[in-house]
Every structure is written in structure tokens, then in C-alpha cells.
Amino acid sequence: MNVYDLKDSQIIIKESDDVRKLYLELTSECNFDCEMCFRHGFSNSFGSMDKEVLNKVLEEIKSLPRLDEVVIGGIGEPLMHPSFQRVADWIKQQNIKLSITSNGALADPHIDFMIEKKVDNLYLSFETGDIGHANETYIFDIAKIIEHRKRKLKNHLPSVHFSMVITRNNIGDLDRVAQALRGSGVSTVFISNLLPTHKEHESLSLYLKAEPEVIKQFKNRLLQKALLEKTRCTTPKFGIQTDRFCNFIEQNALVIRWDGEIAPCYRFLHSAEEFVEGRRKEIKACSFGNIRDKPLLDVWNDRSYAWFRFQVHHSIYPSCIDCPLKNGCEFIKSTDSDCWGNEHSCADCLWSRGIIRCP
Q1: In the chain, which end has fewer C-beta atoms inside a 10 angstrom radius, N or C?
Q2: Is the pLDDT higher at 178 or at 151?
Q3: Which residues, including other chains, have CB under 8 Å from residue 243's CB and lie 6 or more apart?
């Protein structure tokens, strides 16, 4: 139990074992070098999870009685890790829901394995622009191959989803994408705005404006029975709304980096930089412990981590993005702290606003 003394009151946060979702970054390495990728802004080293950390992760998963889902992903390509199949197989043997995020380029040798092991979800990053990995034709071929092999093996899993980042350059492609989805077997298209990691990409962002008409037309096309009956579409916000909602916190999730560091979300997984409304933002990696040194539940119940989750859940932090003082503020330049005294600031996080989205 953690007790926090405030000016004229106390807050008590009880210890819990309520970790429901675990994101596992097997590697931060990637077989692509996309211009828009967060990896270009990393200031920490790249690497892959070694045997010691990996075995510790699998051991610690057994200590999480409420764990519903493991997502093998992170900011890298998990299919590059030599132990990918071993890890995926072990997780499914524990009767835990398993989701995988991938750019799809290395998927073909793993397709039958994922179908036979009944991997629940496969999220494929899909791009049509010139700053992603331009895999439009290939990724549709992969989706159709998976659909064909699922029918052959008489299995409905994995569900295949597309994750797409829209910019000023590729938003006009959505009509063609809607047509190409016919018969692909894709369950959901997740659309996100671009978060620039290069200053020159700022002009490509679409957010902080009204929802483009093209987005509305795309959603309508997917709703038309004649076009596609099964594909759903989730779209981001484009303007600033009062409500803030962190999927990682609300889903009782945590993230384990390739080197064993335990972060609360993807944004705080690596030290990097981003550009928001023309301002360079330094993102400082936030770790509440390393799985090499402490049991996972001990980290989860750590005093500082418990307070961080409480603070974010109750939105006890300022809102930089619509603050009239932001242009003269020093706090806004990094995630170190905010003007309310919080460390690891979420005060201008575009994920919590629904503007940037990940599955």
C-alpha cells in the first residue's frame, strides 16, 4: 500500500496484480528505414532482447494472474528476432491472447506457424506515401495469402488488421485503398495522424484542423455493404478536445523494452524527439525498473509508478497544447516535468488526445 500525503488530505493506492496487457519489444532493430519512423529520433542505442532478459520475461508472465494479452511489437520489427516463434508459441501455450505488430516484409515464412498456433491478431503497418515503407502491393498480397491459408487450414485466426499513417501526401489514396480492401480479409484499418520526427515533415501533418472530407468518405465506403461487409475503420481525432484518455493506462498495460527496462507506454519507451505545432520536443525514456533486477509486480507496485498511473488516469496534469503560455514555457521543451510538479510529463501527449493512434 502506498500513502501519498497532500496538503490537507491523503491518497492511498493499494497494491495490485492487475496487469492486463503486456507489450513486449523483442528488438528495436528494423529491416526498413522509413523516413517518418520514431527510430530516427532515438538517442539511445538499438538492440535485441537477449536470452537472459527473454527467459526472465517469460518467467515473470507466470506471476501475472490477470494478464489477458501480450503484444509482441514495440518500435522495431519483431519477426527479425530469432526467438520470435519460440516466444509466440510459449505465450499461446499459457492461453493468453497474442497480438503481433509487423511491417509484413518478413511475414511469409511465419504465416502457417501463426495460423496453426492461433495467434489472435496480426497488425500490419501499411503505407502508400513516400515517407513510409511503400509496401502497398506487397502488404495486400500478404493479407490475401493469409486469408487463403486460413481457409485451407480451416482456422479463422489470426485476424489481420492494417495500421496506416495519413499525411497531406497520401490522404488522396484512401479511395483506392477502400477499393483494394475488397476480398482482402482485413478486419480493421487503424488510421493515425503523422507525428513528425523531422522538422521538414511538419507540413505533412493534418491534425488541429477539421476532419478531412476524404476521411468521412473512406469510412462511408467501408460501411457500404456492396464494397466490404467485414472491414471496420477507426480514425483519429483532428482537433483538441477536453477529454484525455491513455490506452496504456486504461488497459492496465506496461511495456518491456528489449533491454529489460519497464516503461508505461510506447511514447516513453525510448529517448527521442518529436515536433508538435512547430516546437521541438525532447522525449526522455521513462523506466520504473528493469526486469533483470526486480520482479514485474514489484515494479508495477513501485511508489512512483503507482502514482504515475493514478495521475494519468485522473488527468492530474496540465494541458500544454491549448495553454496560452506555451510559447514562452520551458517545461514544454521536454518530458522531464511539467508546471504542476509532475515528473515524466504527459502534458502535450497527442496519443491521449486521440490524434496519434496505435492499435
Answers
A1: N
A2: 151
A3: none
CA-nearest of 79, 166, 155 to 117 is 155
* Alpha carbon of residue 349 to chain centroid: 13
Q: Mind listing the pLDDT tens digit for each residue in 260-310?
A: 999 999 999 999 888 888 888 899 999 999 999 999 999 999 999 999 999
d(CA 283, CA 102): 24
**Per-residue pLDDT, 223:** 56
Supply 190's cell numbers. 487503424
Q: Where are the beta strands (DSSP E) in 14-57?
A: 21-24
- Quick one: DSSP state of residue 167? -
pTM of the entire predicted model? 0.92
Q: Which residues have a Cβ under 8 Å from the Cβ of 137 and sit 6 or more positions away?
A: none
CA atoms within a 13 Å half-sphere pointing along the CA-CB vector of 45? 6
- Give the model's confidence band at 134: pLDDT under 50 very low, under 70 low, under 90 confident, else very high: low
Closest to 275 (Cα-Cα) out of 189, 188, 200, 180: 200
DSSP state letters, 243-293: ----HHHHTTEEEE-TTSBEESSSTTTS-EEEEETTEEEEEPP--S-BTTT
What is the chain's alpha carbon radius of gyration, rounded to the nearest angstrom?
21
Classify residue 189 as exposed, middle or buried by CB count within 10 Å of its CB (0-12, 13-18, 19+): buried
Cβ count near 243 (within 10 Å): 9
